[in-house]
Design brief:
By secondary structure, this protein is an all-alpha fold. The protein has a domain of 30 residues. 94% of the residues lie in helices and 0% in strands. α1 crosses α2.
């Protein structure tokens, strides 16, 4: 319980939470970005095969 209190009330805990949130956000962004480009490249390749 003390660790959780430190995590949400101290400056280094809040900075850690911000870094964790930013890293998770980057993971979501890059996974969606890469999936979109894979889908676009697959569609382009399918059109070129015709």
């Amino acid at each position: 319980m003390h660790a959780l209190r430190d995590f949400f009330t101290t400056d280094y805990g809040l900075l850690s939470a911000a870094v964790i949130a930013f890293t998770l956000g980057m993971g979501v962004f890059f996974s969606r970005y890469i999936a979109r480009h894979i889908r676009e490249d697959a569609e382009r390749a399918a059109r070129e095969r015709r």
